[in-house]
Amino acid sequence: MANSFENYQKRKLISSYFSVVLSIALVLFLLGILGLLVLNTKKMADRSKEQITISIFLKETAKEVEVEQLQKTLAMSDYTKSATYVSKEEAAEKHSQEIGEDFVDYLGYNPLKNSIDVRLNADFVTSEKVAKIATTLEEKSYVDEVSYDKVLVGIVVQSVEKIGFWILVASAIFTFIAVLLINSSIRLSIYSKRFIIKTMQMVGATKTFIRRPFIWQNIKLGMLGALLALLAIGGVIYYIHTNFQDLGLLEEPYIVAILLVSVFVLGILISYVSTYFATQRFLNLRTDELYY
């Protein structure tokens, strides 16, 4: 009978530890994925912004030296990501491929103009800055027209701002929920030992002495849960990097390293704080209050 009871207690203890580790691992995994999203939001937003193109159409009278000088000026400008010269012959060939017929033969001449396509650095993609850049370029005597999609610029900027805001809000909410879930799991595991805590206190053990084994035990559980979460996060990162290389997830590996270390430290920190306050709560209860 005694052995059966001991086995039952061991199974119950292992089940309690397993639930704590699983709760910590799942919550830290979700936080890690959310953190990965937050850290890469700016990168993804920048990639979207850098797809915006300003087309500088040149007059037929533009001299070769003027075009070369403009290209050099653009290349040295802070706002330029890339500047590509497109001759009117190249533009005509591309346009013919898009519409499926040779419009030059149909018209008898090429109505397109030589141009320079400029992609901007993300920091300069705002409605005001793009308009200012376009106005400056139009002032040059050999520039016929500067064209860009004003509506698209506005939509991209507004979308990026909204997405960034809601991701931050979601991060704050999920972090709060994560702390609550881990705290609840640890409190439940300590709740089953509340009578042991009170007995130790009644025989003269100090609060620090009583707390220490509980804190150390749950820190170990937190570390184990964090390691499981890191393995899962690593698997997700590997999958994304393998199948979606355009996202450049590992272009800055130190960011990923900081994220993984943060998840591990967070697992330990939350376990410590939750255990400290949970044991403190039961230490402050009167004996008759332990039954409620």
Description:
- The chain has 292 residues and is an alpha+beta fold.
- It has helices at residues 2-49, 64-76, 88-99, 103-107, 127-138, 150-191, 194-202, 207-243, 253-283; strands at residues 53-58, 80-86, 115-120, 143-147.
- The protein folds into 2 domains: 2-47 and 157-291, no CATH class; 53-148, Alpha-Beta Plaits, CATH 3.30.70.
- It is built from 9 helices and 4 strands.
- It has a 4-stranded antiparallel β-sheet.
- It is rod-shaped.
- The mean pLDDT is 77.
Could you say which overall geometry the principal axes of the C-alpha atoms support?
rod-shaped
Main sheet summary = 4 strands, antiparallel
Number of domains: 2
Question: In DSSP terms, counting alpha (H) and pi (I) runs of 4 or more, how many helices?
Answer: 9
Q: What series of H and E elements makes up the topology?
A: HEHEHHEHEHHHH
The helix content is over 70%
Rounded to an integer, what's the Rg over CA atoms? Answer: 31 Å
- Poorly predicted sequence stretches spanning 5 or more consecutive residues: none
Q: How far is the N terminus from the C terminus?
A: 29 Å
Name the beta content range.
5-15%
Structural class: alpha+beta
Give average pLDDT, whole number.
77
Please report the total strand number as a whole number: 4
Can you list the strand order of the major beta sheet? 2-3-1-4
Keywords:
292 residues; alpha+beta; Alpha-Beta Plaits; 72% helix
Short description:
By secondary structure, this protein is of the alpha+beta class. Helix content is 72%, strand content 8%. It is built from nine helices and four strands; from the N terminus they run αβαβααβαβαααα.
